[in-house]
Specification:
Blueprint (H helix, E strand, L loop, with lengths): L59 H11 L3 E4 L6 E11 L9 E11 L5 E10 L5 H11 L4 H8 L8 E5 L7 E5 L18 H9 L4 E4 L11 E5 L16 E7 L8 E7 L3 H11 L11 H8 L7 E5 L2 E8 L7 E8 L16
Helix pairs in contact: 2-3
Length: 357
C-alpha cells in the first residue's frame, strides 16, 4: 500500500535498488475499514509464475522499475521469496486553482508480477483521489508504458483493451483502474503468501485497552462486523479544528481478524479534525501498535516516514500498506493508514471487469 527508497530489511521493507532488484474514490479500500484479505494463508510457498507461451523479455521488471523511479515513483517488493511482486507509487498534493476549488490529492499505483526471467506477466494499474486532474493521464501513461509497448499504451489511453502484448481489463465502476495481463498467463496462478499476526483480536483487546484506548468489537457506527473487527478510539485525542460533524475529531485504531486465526488487517485513522490534526491522531496511535507484537515494527517505521499529507503505498514485508488522504469532502476530512495482506491475483476476477454492456 505508497515509496521511496526503502528502509533496512529489519524494518520489514525490501529495498529495491534502481538497477538491480530484479474523481475516483480517494481510499484504497473503505476508509476506516481494513480491506478484507483474500490471500490464502497456507504454509505452502507460492509457485513463481511459470514460463508460459508468451514473448519473454528478460529483465523487464527491473527496467519498468527503473523507468518509474526516474519518473518520481517509489518502489518496494513483496517479501514472498517465491515470487517477484513489486509496487511502484507516486502521490501528489494538488492545490486549489480557483476561488471555488478545494485542495485535493492524487495517487498513481502499479503492482506488477514477473516470471523467473524478469518478464512482467500481470499488473494492476490504479488511480486514487482526484483522477480528473490533468496529472493523472501523464501518471497513468507512465505506469502502462513501463510494462507494454508504446503502441499498446496508446490503445489503452484511447479506451481499448486488445493489445499486441496481451489484454487490458478495465475495472468495473473504477475508470482509473484496470489489469494488464500478458497473453498466455492466468492471474489466478498468483497466490502471494501472507501470514496473520500471532495475536487475535480477542488477545489484542486487553493489550490495546492497556494503551489507554477505549475498545469494542465490531463497527461502532454500523453495529456490524462483530466477528471480524475490534475498534478502539483514543479518548485523549482533542482538536480545535473540528469540521462541525456530529462525530467530532476522532483517532481510531481498528484490527481485522476474519477467521479468528490472527489479525490480518490494521487501520489507523484520524478524521474530522483537519488533515494536520488527523495526521497527529495517526502519529499518536502508531506507538500503541507495539501492543500487537514486534512484527508490526516495519509498518510503524514506514508509516512514520510517510506522514507528509500525501497518499502513499508500499509493500512492507507481506503487507500492502496504504496511506489514504481525504483533504475535504461532504463527509469530512480523513487521514488513514491501512495495512492488509495482498489479494490473490492482484484482485483480478472477471466479475470485476467492465464488459461495456
Amino acid at each position: 500500500m505508497r515509496r521511496a527508497s526503502f528502509w533496512p530489511a529489519a524494518c520489514g521493507v525490501v529495498v529495491l535498488a534502481v538497477a538491480g532488484c530484479g474523481g475516483e474514490s480517494s481510499g484504497h479500500g473503505k476508509i476506516g475499514l481494513p480491506v478484507k484479505s483474500e490471500s490464502k494463508q497456507s504454509a505452502t510457498p507460492s509457485s513463481p509464475a511459470s514460463m508460459g507461451n508468451y514473448k519473454h523479455v528478460p529483465g523487464q521488471a527491473g527496467k519498468a522499475q527503473q523507468a518509474l523511479t526516474a519518473a518520481g515513483f517509489e518502489c518496494t517488493r513483496h517479501s514472498d521469496p517465491a515470487i517477484d511482486l513489486r509496487l511502484c507509487s507516486k502521490g501528489v498534493n494538488i492545490k486549489a486553482s480557483g476561488q471555488f476549488d478545494e485542495d485535493s490529492v492524487l495517487e498513481a499505483r502499479i503492482r506488477f508480477l514477473s516470471d523467473p526471467d524478469g518478464t512482467v506477466v500481470l499488473a494492476k494499474v490504479e488511480g486514487f483521489g482526484d483522477t480528473n486532474d490533468p496529472q493523472w493521464k501523464t501518471l497513468q501513461q507512465q505506469m502502462i508504458s513501463s510494462v507494454v509497448p508504446a503502441d499498446d499504451a496508446a490503445v489503452v489511453a484511447a479506451g481499448g483493451k486488445d493489445l499486441s502484448w496481451g489484454t487490458y481489463f478495465a475495472e468495473a465502476g473504477k475508470s482509473a483502474s484496470g489489469w494488464l495481463q500478458v497473453t498466455g498467463y492466468g492471474a489466478s496462478e498468483l497466490e502471494p503468501q501472507g501470514k496473520p499476526l500471532e495475536v487475535t483480536k480477542e488477545k489484542a483487546l486487553p493489550k490495546l485497552t492497556g494503551e489507554s484506548l477505549k475498545c469494542s468489537f465490531g463497527n461502532p457506527i454500523t453495529g456490524d462486523d462483530q466477528d471480524t473487527l475490534l475498534t478502539c478510539t483514543d479518548p485523549s485525542f482533542k482538536s480545535s479544528h473540528g469540521d462541525g460533524s456530529m462525530e467530532g475529531p476522532t483517532a481510531t485504531l481498528q484490527v481485522t481478524d476474519e477467521d479468528h486465526a490472527g489479525i490480518t488487517g490494521i487501520t489507523l485513522k484520524g478524521e474530522h479534525a483537519g488533515v494536520p490534526d488527523d495526521i497527529r491522531a495517526v502519529k499518536g496511535l502508531l506507538p500503541k501498535l507495539s501492543a500487537l507484537g514486534d512484527s508490526v515494527s516495519g509498518i510503524q517505521q514506514w508509516t512514520t516516514s510517510h506522514l507528509d499529507g500525501a497518499p502513499h503505498s508500499a509493500y512492507v514485508g507481506d503487507h500492502l500498506v496504504n496511506i489514504d488522504v481525504v483533504p475535504d469532502s461532504m463527509t469530512g476530512d480523513v487521514f488513514a493508514m491501512e495495512a492488509d495482506l495482498e489479494e490473490n491475483g492482484l484482485g483480478f476476477d472477471m466479475t470485476k471487469v467492465d464488459t461495456g454492456s
